[in-house]
Amino acid sequence: MTPVRRTVPVAAAAGALVLGALLPLGLQGAAQAAATPNGGDVIANLFQWNWNSVAAECTNVLGPKGYGAVQVAPPQESISVPGHPWWEVYQPVSYNLNSRMGTDAQFRAMVTACHNAGVKVYADAVINHMAGANQSSTTGYGGSGFNPAAYSYSAVPYSKSDFHGSPPCPNADLSVTDWNNVTQVQECQALNLEDLSTESDYVRGKIAGYLNSLIGAGVDGFRVDTAKHIAQTDMANILSRLSDTRWGGRPYVYQEIFPGGGSQLAPAAFESNGSVLEFTYASKLSQQFNGNIANLKTFGQSWGFEPSDKSNVMVTNHDLERDRTTLTYNDGSKYRLAHVFELAWGYGTPQVYSGFRFNNKEDSPPADGNGFVTDVNCGNGTWTCTDRDRGISNMVGWHNATQGQPIANWWDNGNNAIAFSRGSKGWVAINNSGSAVTQTFTTGLAAGTYCDVIHGDLSGSNCTGPTVSVDGSGRATVTVNAGDAVALYAATTGTASPSPSSSASPSGSASPSPSASSTKPGGTVTETFNENRTTVSGQNVYLVGSLPQLGSWDPNAAVALSPAGYPVWSGSVQLPANTAFEYKYIVKDASGNVTWESGANHSANSGANGGTLNDSWGGATATGQVTVNFSENRTTVYGQNVYLVGSTAQLGSWNPANALPMSSASYPNWTLSLTLPASTAFEYKYLVKDASGNVTWESGANRIYTTGASGTVTLNDSWK
């Protein structure tokens, strides 16, 4: 809400990506009618991200990871004041959709992009009030005329008679002096915010018209700001006027109801109009992660929460993180583990909050000189892209796969380590203590090998990280590091490989043919593919090749690559060791059309240790190269990862945003294999990034190396 307790009313991460660059204004993609929701319920709360950045996040992260919805900033035009504090957007001046987050057209394009990714859009709806009566600015982000001093908003239009005065507010200055008094809370001004007379049929019609305009643009639901300040009967009347959403059914409504006040002001009194934001959940969760998480065994309605089907739960939000009353991005592993627990426990409708870093409570999000929010960059330390944290984003899939399953197989050590399953569908262990825990757990899972999705990504039947073996009794011996977690839900064994396809490339490109290479002894290795390819909105790059793990030349079984270092698309695949293979890249658009890379097939050999293949669209892998194995000994804490960066473009040109992630499979040795040009000198260093994007450089002089004419070399280094 606008600051009810403030002087004048949120905000692990992948590498840097300027999201707006991926999705130009003329967003292309499948027709809205062709899109269908993905069925998930997890909400990514992208606090004050601009519309282009939300669109890109839906396309590249939220949809692929299974998020069901995205909560976006208030879309209506708001006041613009000097310094452009974050709360500007909670002081509306019209119901036009030109705001500091972008234009009306950009908003509609964002909704379309999110729908094309299967993600619903929930808008933050500020309908209790307009701007502050104490504001002198008459400048809005869309150019509409207004005058707060005169209670005049010509673009709606509203005049002074459309606002609460005294009476009905019992206080002449219109302030709220008794937060337990229903009349004061719902008919006076919270911190000078001009309180709309929602008893008025005219005002109800204007509010409903605004919300219906959002539904017409494709919005699927609303987070109702300051809902406690709107009489329940008034809210019910407004909601009764709303249309069904484009995807069918009534809009999902969740209301901001701070706890406190008498029975008519308690959260339960508002449930007839929708769900409520569960502030008590966030507070109690914070207390346990700062105390003893073994207590979470009974976490639920008995703790004072609203019923699960009426609760919209969270670890934090923009108000709470500014008040420091809950866990925030400053709390490191506790913050991440609390999100893991929230997604695993299954109480209420969960949110994952991604905002921006701030030094002062009133700070603006990153913006230009006119206050318009700039594109989100998750790697420059200004944004907290929690929705991308590997463990958290992969827990969204875990959450979706275990929906409806009961809590079972609870284990705790009486202190700060717990484990439990959701029926027989998923199992998680969380260690909030300062030392590792090794235990043989009863997981409830069927026998098999499972991907630890906290540390690795599932790609078909492959896992890019560590795996856990579950025996025939459903038991597994697992070590959970300090401040860390392990989560299992999908077995990586027993999945049939796709049949080879006879599909050929389109005219003008070489037709791929299945490789005759056979698997040789030596197990599997990790091969990383980097493809430089610019795309337009709705397009994604995939890898396909001669091995079953690469889809056997079937575009429908191709491996999706990630644009985390756009325009370079990357992905890692477990391949049989010492095996020759061929491969190509393809582009698919939102309608499923496939464009094959031209030219001859790429050829490579996985070798004994795997490696990295760096390619450009339509170009063969370079010859005259040397394989360099980098190994860096560096201990880390949860959320930290080690990267390699250096003097050449392939090594990121000393830009931390382009640094290359290293594997922790041999921890504390972090490893990375690269194919580099022969007989070439380069300089390099190692750095550490945490989940919030903070960068720590290795000290001392740059390391220097010159590759030989051919062969393989290993550089064994230790952090300095």
TrEMBL record:
PROSITE patterns: CBM20. Residues 495-524 have a biased composition (Low complexity). One of its GO terms (biological process) is carbohydrate metabolic process. SMART domains: Aamy, Aamy_C, CBM_2. Its cofactor is Ca(2+). It comes from the Bacteria. Residues 1-33 form the signal peptide. One of its GO terms (molecular function) is starch binding. Pfam families: Alpha-amylase (PF00128), Alpha-amylase_C (PF02806), CBM_20 (PF00686). It catalyses: Endohydrolysis of (1->4)-alpha-D-glucosidic linkages in polysaccharides containing three or more (1->4)-alpha-linked D-glucose units. It is an enzyme of class 3 (hydrolase). Keywords: Calcium, Carbohydrate metabolism, Glycosidase, Hydrolase, Metal-binding, Signal. InterPro entries: A-amylase/branching_C, A-amylase_C, Alpha_amylase, Carb-bd-like_fold, CBM20, GH, GH13_cat_dom, Glyco_hydro_b. Its EC number is 3.2.1.1. Belongs to the glycosyl hydrolase 13 family. This is Alpha-amylase. The lineage of its organism: Bacteria, Bacillati, Actinomycetota, Actinomycetes, Kitasatosporales.
